Amino acid sequence: MSDPEPLGFIENRPFDEIKIGDSAELVRTLTAQDIDAFAVVSGDVNPAHVDEEFAEGDIFHKVVAHGMWGGALISNVLGTQLPGPGTIYLEQSLKFLKPVGVGDTVVVRVEVTERDEEKHRLTLACTCTNGDGKPVIEGVARVIAPDRKIRRPRMTMPDIVLHKHGKAHGEMLARAQALDPMATAVVHPCDRSSLEGALQARDLGVLAPILVGPAARIRSVAEENDLDITGLEIVDTPHSHAAAEAAVDLVRTGAARALMKGALHTDEVMSAVVSKTGGLRTERRMSHVYVMDVPTYPKPLIITDAAINIAPDLETKADIIQNAIDLASAIGIDVPKVAILSAVETVNARMQSTIEAAALCKMADRGQITGGLLDGPLAFDNAISMRAVATKSIVSPVAGQADILVAPDLEAGNMIAKQLMYLAGAEAAGVVLGARVPIILTSRADDTKTRIASAAIAALYSAAQRP
Q1: Which of 188, 199, 355, 458 could form a disulfide with 243 if both were Cys (CB 3.0 to 4.6 A apart)?
Q2: Is 174 found in the same domain as 139?
Q3: DSSP single-letter state for residue 180
Q4: Are residues 363 and 252 in the same domain?
Q5: 204 and 124 in one domain?
Q6: Considering the domain boundaries, does residue 162 fall inside one?
Q7: Cis amide prior to 83 (ω within 30 degrees)
Q8: Which domain holds residue 30?
């Protein structure tokens, strides 16, 4: 049996060095990520491999590996060990004897059984056995072996990040669908994206939309884009400013339990909401909360405030944190871990954000902020990376595993959120909290999927706030 190559190089065995009986092997334990990666690359999404519910009722009663996953491991040994680089694959037969499930360890072994001196061809017996030593795959490979020595630096391959788009938001949507549809005043839905988002949330059973705006324009948009608004209440207003005021009135009278922004500027909606005479103010300051699904982070990540409070003071930050904690609880995070961000993880008298972070933690100790576990100041890396935490020897129940990131100001919060979206492929949904009802404050550039996810989060929050 050949010895494994040093990590830095990959080396073959030319035909003249190979004898009958020579062998090589590798050991691999099957993970769920292996199955997903193979399905993505091959396009084979047979439910026996990727659908747990289906697999439980299938012949093996569990998710099993694609048969060719084992075949690929045989190719691995032939191409990297015996004969190694320069090998030309001619033929492969395989017999699949037993299924391989997640957690099973497979030993893949190839052994030379025939040599063709004239054509430099080899025949190799190929066997994959499980942890009990029982064969799961048997077969025969025929290859042309290389005729010269090849030793190359082992290439560093890119990391594979497996992420099911929409998974985290999809789980929240499923929970929201179990609730009664939330009556929602949709403000000025006078373009396709805003009207379509509200209607799809309706069709999914999340919202019961009340369309507020110029009735003729709303009907025109629906007709032009083949959108069905049959049976929906339309509150006719002359323009967007009036639509915002009418939508707020619907909330004040109890006809609506949420607001959803349509095709108008955020300032128009918020101006009606914060009005001292007929708005939706409460004792708590309003703040914007992003709920983000980040491919490289193992759980939903909440970021606040990225859209409302430009330079929040200490009291405003306390409300921002409490809003975020309440939302985290509503979406199923029992005791959210709150990281209060700054540029460093130590208190520095010249950096106001570090002083306020320390004060906010003490406020939580004294019961002025409840329901979460706070720590700060923490730099961004210390808040979300256990490796950074270990490197800096930080002792904290929050560091490295935050559920909520509290930015020092709006600029920082907005940059964090947008960087995650555009550089890390994060999916974002957002709401404004602190008013009498949640406000679904999506951007005009947001797609329908984002609007639906935001509606689901608002519905969960609204249900959690009701007595």
Answers
A1: 188
A2: no
A3: P
A4: yes
A5: no
A6: no
A7: yes
A8: 9-153
- Strand, helix or coil at 303? strand
Residue 450, both tokens:
């984002």
- pLDDT (tens, 9 = 90+) of the chain, 467 residues, equals 444 444 689 999 999 999 999 999 999 999 998 999 999 999 999 999 999 999 999 999 999 999 999 999 999 999 999 999 999 999 999 999 999 999 999 999 999 999 999 999 999 999 999 988 899 999 999 999 999 999 999 888 888 878 788 889 999 999 999 999 999 999 999 999 899 999 999 999 999 999 999 999 999 999 999 999 999 999 999 999 999 999 999 999 999 999 999 999 888 999 999 998 889 999 999 999 999 999 989 999 999 999 999 999 999 999 999 999 999 999 999 999 999 999 999 999 999 999 999 999 999 999 999 999 999 999 999 999 999 999 999 999 999 999 999 999 999 999 999 999 999 999 999 999 999 999 998 776 777 888 899 999 999 999 998 87
Strands 373-378 and 337-341: parallel
Shared domain for 124 and 177, answered yes or no, is no
Number of domains in the chain: 2
Contact 293, 168 (CB under 8 A): yes
| CB atoms near residue 390 (< 10 Å) | 11
